[in-house]
Amino acid sequence: MRVIALTGLVVFVCLSVILGIFVLVRVVMFVLPSSLTEFRIVTDVLRVVLAVVLAYAWLRLWKIITDSYFWRSIGAVKIDQDEP
Amino acid sequence: MLDPQSCVMAAVVSIGAFAATYLTIQPIASWMRNHGITGIDIHKLDKPKIPEMCGLSIIAGLAVAGVLSSALFLGYSREVAAFLGTVLIAGAIGAIDDLRPLTPKLKPALTALAAAPILLLGTYNPHPFFPLIGSTRLTIIYPILILFAIAVPANAVNMLDVFNGAMSGTLAIVSLALGLILFLSGSLTAASLALALLGSLVAFYLFNRYPARVFIGDTGSLAVGAAVGALAVIGRIEAATVVALAPYIMNAFYGLASVGRLYERREIKSRPVRLRDDGMLEATADRNAPVTLTRLILAEGPLREPQIVHMMLLLTAVSSALAVLTYLLQGGL
Asked: Is residue A76 part of a domain?
């Protein structure tokens, strides 16, 4: 179970890196209207803000999954040890 | 793509790096021990003193590989010069940290300076390849990202250097994967440097594996981490390198997210892992301790140190295989 869980976490990290880069580069960097030169500064600032928000959301999700796995697993180990 | 001369060059620099590291490691270890530069192996019951800063032998191995590749095959190569410059600067910062510990904020900031040779020699292409996307233009921001490309892996590698053979073993697997990707991509100089790194790390692993006879020190861990970052930039395999380093990124991120700031291991009062009287290691249930990769591995019960290292090697093998897949996804073949 330990090997499966940790391998799953590594695969999740790797896939989320690939998907995260895709979202950041494809959606945030290119979809916003950079062609509108009069709004260039606004769109550039918006891109950076959106990229930071996306990255932060991804990191939060990652931490929630890890914390959930860790505290659930360590709780189960402690309960096993406490049982006579 | 894999012409005979490239194969000979890769073999020569890899064997040269292995031999130079293997031959210099014992004299360096003796010198460190005689001068009292030792660290305590805290995960052993008898707490032995082990010579520190022996990562100098890896730097020596990479220097020999660089000289061999230039003298025998390439002539003057900007890529080799940038790679060695980055490794030497990161190693020098690590040596300072080993002898006079730097603050948690100053160390990553100084490590970013190791990117200077790459920036000054212009051995980068601001059009990195990304999986599912292809080539992307990042003309203005890319030079700034190079600072992070060197500082982040250097410090992430430094953070995972906690068990005998963990860092040298896992990074040897990463180097092998990066070497394969670079060969497939036709970046033969960078591929040779990756295999030189592999040769040095394998030689070092023979002395650093459980029970360790030498410690790499920040001198070696920062240099090796910076070397991986330099390979990513010079060889244009940024995304694949990030994937290969997933266990390192996990460990660094978990630690930073738990503590909430940059930190040094020595300043953490609540230990994430405890050595039991029977020699096994177990995760503590202390909520103030950082949730590191080691603590995650130990979450489902105690293990012996070599078993933890084997788990790290397995996770790195998975991430390295995914890195090769990532390269293929970005249209590598």
From this structure: no
